[in-house]
Design brief:
single chain, three-stranded antiparallel β-sheet
Length: 103
């Protein structure tokens, strides 16, 4: 997938702008990750996370959660996984820190 954020000014890609919420929500429904910098500016969407060989999924963990857990550990970042079941999980340093279920 081509990066939909490439070539756009930072102020047009900010999660802080109400006018961007619908666009970002639509990208969140697609496969692949959305990356934001520490200021909340999106840099990439539709990106797949290469999970290191030997990384094992935990019980009940699907591909999205495995990828979020892995990227939070590898990139020293916060990863938020929104699953199709309505579960939202926040990972920090490869560990689940918060979970909520919508429904």
């Amino acid at each position: 997938m081509l990066n939909p954020f490439k070539g756009h000014r930072a102020e047009k890609k900010s999660i802080l702008l109400d006018e961007n919420h619908e666009t970002l929500a639509e990208f969140a429904w697609l496969d692949g990750a959305i990356f934001f910098n520490k200021n909340g500016v999106a840099s990439d969407a539709g990106r797949y996370i290469q999970v290191p060989a030997g990384t094992q999924p935990k019980y009940g963990e699907g591909g999205r959660h495995l990828a979020a857990r892995a990227i939070s550990q590898l990139a020293d970042c916060v990863a938020i996984c929104v699953s199709s079941s309505g579960k939202i999980t926040l990972y920090v340093n490869g560990r689940e820190r918060y979970k909520v279920r919508l429904n």
